[in-house]
Amino acid sequence: MLTKEDFPKYERICKDNEITALFNDGEGISVYPYRVVFLFKPNVNERVTCRLLLSVSKKRFHHAFKRNRVKRLIRESWRKNKAELYETCERDNISVDVALVYTATVIHSYDEMMNKTGKAIHEIVKHHETHQTMAN
Fold first, then answer.
1. Which residue of 54, 77, 78, 91 has the lowest C-beta tally within 10 Å?
2. Distance between CA atoms of 101 and 83, rounded to whole angstroms?
3. Which domain covers residue 45, as residue numbers?
4. In this structure, are residues 36 and 120 in contact, taking their beta carbons and an 8 Å threshold?
5. Distance (Å, rounded) from C-alpha 6 to C-alpha 111?
6. C-alpha to C-alpha distance for 87 and 67, rounded to whole angstroms
7. Which of 27, 47, 56, 52 is nearest to 123 (CA)?
8. If DSSP codes are grouped into helix, strand and coil, which group holds residue 66?
9. pTM for the full predicted model
10. CATH code at 106?
11. CA angle (48 as vertex; 33, 19 as ends), nearest 5
């Protein structure tokens, strides 16, 4: 299935209990400039979802306009690269929650963000597939 390149409300993680569950029960990897935390769940809805939580530290970027710029770049690169993750989720009938915590101290260019976000998504898929084959 060809995934739309949009980012609707249902693909965002907003509730405190969902955020807590993600960070408590999820697995984490580092893919510079991100700390990636993800949690695969069996699909209970009719819709497969890949939901995203963004975090950009005020400690690293003191000005809100810089934090907002980084978040805009991450959202755009997620929107363009999420198709690989959706294909895996639809094939295995699972949903996934992902938190991208931006750890760099500089704002990377659009092309770098696209590449790094794509690499992070690829690592999530690879991690799921290795654990899937070990379970079988």
1. 91
2. 20
3. 29-135
4. yes
5. 19
6. 30
7. 27
8. helix
9. 0.90
10. 3.30.230
11. 50
Residue 70 lies in a domain: yes
Helices (H), the chain: 16-25, 64-81, 83-92, 110-135
The pair of three-digit structure tokens given for residue 65, joined into one six-digit string: 């306009």
Is 36 part of any domain?
yes
Alpha helices in 5-82 (DSSP H): 16-25, 64-81
The answer to whether residue 21 is domain-embedded is no
Q: Is residue 71 part of a domain?
A: yes
- pLDDT, one tens digit per residue, over 50-77 is 999 999 999 999 999 999 999 999 999 9
Amino acid of residue 64: A
pLDDT at position 75 is 95
Check pLDDT > 70 for residue 96.
yes
8 Å CB contact between 19 and 103: no
Question: Using CB atoms within 10 A of its CB, is residue 116 exposed (0-12), middle (13-18) or buried (19+)?
Answer: buried
Burial class (CB in 10 A: 0-12, 13-18, 19+), 57: middle
User: Considering its fold, how many domains does the chain have in total?
Assistant: 1
